[in-house]
Design goal:
The protein is an all-beta fold. It has one helix and 29 strands.
């Protein structure tokens, strides 16, 4: 006899709640909905709860922390920004979390002390919460527009598009290392350093594999290659740059980045090429060698339950979402609403 399937709770709006023994993926759409995916099946589309005192929304990213799905919403709290909270057991919205900085986008948690780091895109600061209601600290960053956050061995790393380097007088991309125990910036690496992405480089996704930090230069430029996407490398103590030409010159804008433990590789994606039609994800191992490439984006989040990556389709198909399995098999998931940003999903 086949085992009985676990029944799903049906909430009043007809959406299904993620089963207790399953890790679902929660996707924001940038408009006002969160989709819930169980494996490759869409089981819920939840509208953000709006009120007369909090009538605006434009969800940017989701993250599982404080036992809830947190949705960074720059338009919430009347455009001051807030974190909306979604109960995964009921699909119901709780009370929003007010943060110190405006325009919250990226979130990363410190499992050692339970704190949550939230970037404020365009405001040169990171808000640290020790609980949903307690502010631990506000940290100034090396630049204004944070593109990605990652946690590793007690430190948080922030990849930032551009900042002003007072030592050189140049504007360049930069990376901050934040000590999770003291909540202070302990190291900064600038893009204008030797072998780095240069002052013209716009930094984007960041991941860590071993002691190496993988950083996307979303758009770089030099006289030989022209405009190109490239991956640069540094160490976890941010001790200078190294670069390998991975062959994407004049082709792809490299954006999202995530470590894939099932493949022991860093997955780096472009939701589109300059033709705006072909999304890709490349997988780079610890030897900084490309080991695989698939025509799909898969760098929004990693689901440890199915050991798969999830990410949005190209700009031409905003209502499609991709899952990349451990064997590089690509499956398409059709959503009720589209999602374009590579930061907008989390596994509970």
């Amino acid at each position: 006899m086949a085992p009985a399937e676990e029944s799903m709770t049906i909430v009043p709006n007809g959406n299904k709640v993620c089963p207790n023994n399953v890790k679902c993926v929660y996707v924001d759409d940038g408009v006002g909905f969160v989709s819930v995916i169980e494996k490759t099946k869409l089981i819920a589309t939840i509208p953000v709860k709006l009120t007369t005192s909090d009538p605006y929304t434009c969800p940017e990213s989701t993250y599982f922390w404080f036992n809830e799905i947190l949705v960074a919403d720059p338009c919430g709290n009347n455009y001051a920004g807030e974190l909306r909270t979604l109960n995964v057991s009921t699909n119901k919205w709780g009370s929003p979390i007010t943060i110190a900085g405006n325009d919250p986008v990226f979130m990363v948690g410190d499992p050692q002390n339970g704190e949550l780091f939230i970037t404020s895109f365009g405001y040169s600061e990171v808000t640290v919460l020790s609980s949903p209601t307690k502010l631990a600290k506000t940290i100034s960053t090396c630049g204004t527009y944070t593109e990605s956050s990652i946690y590793d061995k007690g430190n948080v790393y922030e990849s930032i598009q551009k900042g002003y380097d007072q030592k050189t007088g140049n504007y360049a991309g930069c990376i901050d290392e934040i000590n999770g125990s003291t909540n202070t910036v302990t190291a900064t690496l600038w893009g204008d350093a030797t072998n780095g992405p240069g002052t013209d480089g716009i930094l984007a996704g960041i991941s860590i594999l071993g002691n190496a930090v993988y950083v996307n230069c979303e758009l770089c430029y030099n006289s030989t290659l022209g405009t190109y996407g490239e991956v640069f490398f540094t160490t976890t103590n941010l001790a200078g740059w190294s670069s390998h030409n991975l062959g994407f010159a004049n082709t792809y804008i490299l954006w999202g980045s995530i470590y894939d433990p099932a493949k022991h590789a860093v997955a780096i994606s472009s939701p589109y090429a300059y033709s705006y039609t072909t999304p890709i994800t490349i997988f780079i191992n610890a030897r900084k060698t490309i080991i695989a490439q698939v025509n799909a984006t898969g760098t929004s989040c990693y689901n440890p339950a199915d050991k798969s990556l999830y990410g949005p389709a190209s700009l031409s198909s905003p209502s499609s979402y991709y899952m990349i399995s451990p064997k590089y098999v690509v499956k398409t998931i059709v959503l009720s609403y589209g999602e374009l940003e590579p930061s907008g999903c989390a596994a509970n």
